Amino acid sequence: MAEVDPLWTNRHPPKTQCSLPVRQTREGNSHYLWEWFNIDTEAIIKQALQTGGGPNVSDAYTINGLPGHLYNCSEKDTFKLQVKPGKTYLLRLINAALNDELFFSIADHMFTVVDADAVYVKPFTTDTLLIAPGQTTNVLLKTKSHYPNATFLMLARPYVTGQGTFDNSTTAGILEYELPSKSSSFGTTSLKKLPLFMPQLPALNDIFFATNFAKKLHSLATAQFPANVPQTVDRHFFFTVGLGTNPCPKNHTCQGPTNNTMFAASINNNSFAMPTTALLQTHFFRQSNNAILTTTFPTEPLIPFDYTGTPPNNTNVSNGTKLVVLPFNTSVELIMQDTSILGAESHPLHLHGFNFFVVGQGFGNYNPSKDPASFNLMDPVERNTVGVPVGGWVAIRFLADNPGVWFMHCHLESHSSWGLNMAWVVLDGKLPNQKLPPPPLDLPKC
């Protein structure tokens, strides 16, 4: 256990301008990891979409809204968690950041992971967590058996796989033990004089840690909490996910990755275009007239290529509002493959309306003749958001038993805004409880 290196904060240059409010520190078992922007985030993404370039990065990260004392203007804005010796605490970690996966650790303390995305997992211990935007993790924190005469930093900083700019800073909170009530040797000012210890977080691009952490997650798969993994598959899908470009509009100056281009993102080279009328609304009224939304979304790449090797010269994507239609109770297997177009990158993909089972993952190009043999169909983790490994693939299975129109998108806000989205249409079943209910009578008209 090593004390804080006084030069450590200098290796993370503090912000020169901040406008962070003074807030009261507070206890609580829910910990939100956020990004702080000094200007309106809507204005940031609007500017990025107009210029075709990447959005400005955040000004700070926060724990429960407080950036911590490693930023030069926020010494008073540090989250503090008070604990007692010999206790076990349940901490609920939520990554509510817009564009960054985050490492999280508390100095000289271990976590027991018991939950991921609100589903129990086989417990395992770790000193560091990795949480993607939109993901949640519940952990048990067992405190030391006696008063330690020290305080402990809790830190969060990004896991970085892309080639773009990012907020290379660290947010800090403090875990402190309540003073012994019967001891007269401790005063209210003595907490500030205690040694402060810091955790050793993984490197910013530690793919090895990220991979091993993901592999430790397994469902309980017990009689009380079964893992109802589809053992047979009705529909197979192969989606490439990654970045691309759109041509710059005429008489317009763009700041995209290459001359005269704008950043775009796509699934199977289709960049999702937001419709003017809600898809669920359209689907319900068409279905009531014995018509359904047609499926035009490519269920596999139209032009196969070496997805993780040398990228193709043409990086342009197609654009449109395209969907996949599934009959009720269809069992689905989906392979999501990262691409090296404009740089390989980890993509946290989130599916609305369903949980899914992560049955396999690997690096390089997915091999349909070899890789399924290693799939875990016994106790795979059940989630609603999963990271597509940088330069690799992930395989998920789910049962389409929830009628409606369900969005699937990258949980990096910039990628979603660039079009890394698609939608599944699940048709009604035969029974009354298997049908999409009508909209409420007071639903505002679009």
From TrEMBL:
**Keywords tagged on the record:** Apoplast, Copper, Lignin degradation, Metal-binding, Oxidoreductase, Repeat, Secreted
- Highest taxon above the source species: Eukaryota
Primary site of residence: secreted
Specify whether Metal-binding is a keyword of the entry. Answer: yes
State the GO CC annotations.
apoplast
Please give the catalytic activity noted in the UniProt record: 4 hydroquinone + O2 = 4 benzosemiquinone + 2 H2O
Task: Read off the SUPFAM superfamilies from this record.
Answer: Cupredoxins
Q: Which cofactor does it need?
A: Cu cation
Q: Which GO terms describe its biological process?
A: lignin catabolic process
Molecular function (GO) terms listed?
copper ion binding; hydroquinone:oxygen oxidoreductase activity
> Is-annotated flag, keyword Flavoprotein?
no
* Described function: Lignin degradation and detoxification of lignin-derived products.
| Protein name per the record | Laccase
What species is this protein from?
Answer: Thalictrum thalictroides
Lineage of the source organism?
Eukaryota, Viridiplantae, Streptophyta, Embryophyta, Tracheophyta
